[in-house]
Amino acid sequence: MAQHTVPANELAIKALRCPEGRARVVYHVDGHGNEGLKLYVQSSGTKTWYFRARVRGSDPKDMPLGRWPDVTIADARKRKSAIVVSISDGVDPWEKRAEDRRRKPRITLNDAFAEWLEAAADQKRSCDQDELRYDMNIRGGHQFILGKWKGRTHKTGIGHLHIAEITRLDISTCLSDVRKRSPSQAHHALVLLSTIFKWARATGYVDVNPAEGQPFYHRSPARERLKGAKL
After folding, report:
1. H or E stretch covering 52
2. What is the pTM of this model?
3. Which domain holds residue 10?
4. Is residue 213 in some structural domain?
């Protein structure tokens, strides 16, 4: 498969788009000194820097460096250089990052999701889809650019809340808004939330899983077929 590349300048990065029909595309940054540096561009328009490296002969892993434009190409290079130095000093930056997050007080759901996604990346094939669903239905602030919800914003997201303080009511309020758009999306968002909280409980971030026992939002195959026939 051909590799997508992008010149190392802000204008080229600003112009990047995710091809229609794709959830995400990866662009590798051209130029000397940018080896392993890449940009994940989602269909929602979100652009996230990653650096791909290996530690002590391990399989290559991606380290998130932050989102563009908050993190510029110059910032991404500096963060990449710091990781390279850590590895050369015998430090595993992934383990250090996880430990720093565990020590971080009042971690948010967004923080926990990013750490869970990183930990699950090697085992899950649906990480791209999970990230898109999280951004659309859980994080909050997602602006829809297609369909009947075009121009609207998801305002009941809970990603900014501290994960240990999220209640069943918070989740129910968030998903009730999602359900108005799509019961199936609400269902998938609830499954994703439950998975994140199970991991967070095992990690020690929370004592309970507030997503457990929430009603699932199913749409029967018969209703889906009926809806399709009406269209």
Report:
1. strand 47-53
2. 0.53
3. 4-91
4. yes
